[in-house]
Design brief:
mainly alpha, 2 domains, 7 helices, binds zinc ion
Length: 164
């Protein structure tokens, strides 16, 4: 009795699988694609998003602070009012160095803010965590360290070598 029923099941299954053969092939491709796209759980993506937003917030504040400080100093200089720091001659000597340093800092921070915006866009477009060059997944370890990473370590190295 038992054997009979299982055999019957088998045959019906076989028939069904034959009929679905072509669609099944399409399905596996779709499945693979879906799997590739869904690399992270929603929870994980939200964590990355939050991390990126916090980082952006910090950077924006820093940029604002440095800009305010530079503006205040250059206004002081322009108005000839150097009395505020003429008492500190040693400080004055390092002012131009500091300004250059701050400008460099601000520009690199702005660049990171842009990278963060791009990464946030990739989260929305479900492309987050994939190398923009080879399309392979970026190691989670790397994303945890640099959540706005655009490329995997290998491609990043290649790009840096080409830029040199
Ligand atoms: Zn890559």
């Amino acid at each position: 009795m038992k054997k009979k029923s299982s055999q019957r099941k088998k045959t019906t299954k076989k028939k069904a699988s034959k009929a679905k053969k072509t669609t099944a092939k399409k399905k596996t491709i779709k499945k693979k694609f879906k799997k590739k796209k869904k690399r992270f759980l929603k929870k994980e993506l939200n964590a990355y998003r939050e991390k990126l937003l916090n980082l952006k917030d910090d950077l924006m504040k820093q940029i604002q602070e440095i800009s305010d400080e530079s503006l205040r100093k250059s206004q002081q200089e322009a108005s000839g009012d150097i009395s505020a720091y003429s008492l500190h001659l040693a400080d004055r000597a390092s002012d131009s160095y500091e300004r250059d340093f701050n400008l460099g800092l601000v520009s690199s921070e702005r660049r990171i803010v842009m990278e963060i915006d791009e990464a946030l866009k990739r989260i929305d477009e479900k492309q987050y965590g994939f190398c923009q060059m080879c399309k392979k997944p970026i190691a989670k370890r790397r994303l945890d360290a640099i959540p706005y990473a655009r490329y995997g370590t290998k491609c990043q190295k290649k790009i840096e070598e080409e830029e040199r």
